[in-house]
Specification:
This protein is of the alpha/beta class. About 45% of the residues lie in helices and about 15% in strands. The structure holds NADP nicotinamide-adenine-dinucleotide phosphate.
């Protein structure tokens, strides 16, 4: 039983390690050719502990890959205008190649206004409306990191998407929406579900590929899953719990991402890789 279960696991850690190794090579080449170290600016507003931890992890991965990380920390009480001004400074700074605004930002701040201050060529976290538009139109872009990480995992495990029925649960601008667009661009038939969707279990039952991006622990039940379906659990809830009931899903599914160790590591590795790519593009280095 244990052996069967392991064979079904999609190993996000292993693929992320390879992606990061590739980013290291890109960083070295950029340095060799342009004499510049790719730099990611991280912007953190307020004192949310989880956000601070995520930023720390991203900065560490960045430095591990040989890149510089520029830390911008703004106090609770920062206004939208002040935050936008900081981002505009980073946008104009030629030594900064990627900008990440850690979200959620404190409530009174207009998050969309902050995101839109990031120029598309430095939008390595894929949060701007321009980036999302490019993703929808299948144009080159730095795609939001979680859906980009997921598509790389699906490709790594040779999951057939052409003509497959993919059900995406969640329609957020950073996850569900770009994920649905990427899958459409890969010729899947996509059903995008959300909190107003009726008869969700019966929709999920028809899915060849399920992407759970809901933010509710163990929300997707094993009984909803068609035998042989591929299950991607993007959820990351308190206590390392995903959005899928893993114990119920492991039997019917053909492949599944564990939490932790599935989608999470791919998200950060994609951010690092895209920052290296952004630097190369800005510096005219052909990778
Ligand atoms: P979000 O912005 O809160 O969006 C959640 C989505 O789920 C919304 O579209 C919502 O629908 C939908 N939803 C809520 N309740 C539902 C229900 N009962 N039935 C169907 N749909 C429902 O969350 P997010 O930022 O996309 O994140 C989703 C999950 O992914 C979270 O667990 C988060 O922690 C995780 N995440 C993980 C990573 C990673 O690196 N692993 C990165 C980002 C996010 P409405 O639009 O109708 O409200």
């Amino acid at each position: 039983m244990e052996a069967i279960n392991k064979a079904k696991l999609m190993d996000g850690r292993a693929l992320a390690r390879r992606l990061l190794a590739g980013a290291v090579a890109k960083v070295e080449k950029i340095h060799e050719i342009a004499g510049v170290t790719p730099t990611l600016a991280t912007v953190l507003v307020g004192d949310d502990r989880a956000s601070a931890t995520y930023v720390r992890m991203k900065r560490k991965r960045c430095e591990d890959a040989g890149m510089k990380s520029l830390r911008v920390e703004l106090p609770l009480g920062t206004t939208t205008e002040e935050l936008v001004e900081e981002i505009e400074k980073l946008a104009a700074d030629e030594s900064v190649h990627g900008i990440l605004v850690q979200h959620p930002v404190p409530k009174p701040i207009d998050k969309r206004a902050a995101f839109e201050a990031i120029p598309v060529e430095k939008d390595v976290d894929g949060v701007t409306s321009s980036t999302l538009g490019r993703v929808i139109l299948n144009m080159p872009a730095f795609v939001s990191c979680t859906p980009k990480g997921i598509i790389q995992l699906l490709d790594e495990y040779h999951v057939e998407l052409d003509g497959a029925h993919a059900v995406v649960i969640g329609r957020s601008p950073i996850l569900g929406r770009p994920m649905a667009s990427i899958l459409i661009n890969r010729h899947a038939t996509v059903t995008l579900c959300h909190s107003r969707t009726r008869s969700l279990p019966s929709i999920v039952r028809h899915a060849d590929v399920i992407i759970a991006a809901v933010g509710k622990p163990r929300f997707v039940q094993g009984g909803w899953i068609k035998v042989g379906a591929v299950v991607i659990d993007a959820g990351y809830n308190e206590g390392n719990i995903g959005d899928v009931d893993f114990d119920g899903a492991i039997e019917p599914c053909s492949l599944i991402t564990p939490v932790p160790g599935g989608v999470g590591p791919m998200t950060i590795a994609t951010l690092i890789d895209q920052t290296a790519d952004a630097a190369a593009l800005q510096l005219g280095v052909d990778l």
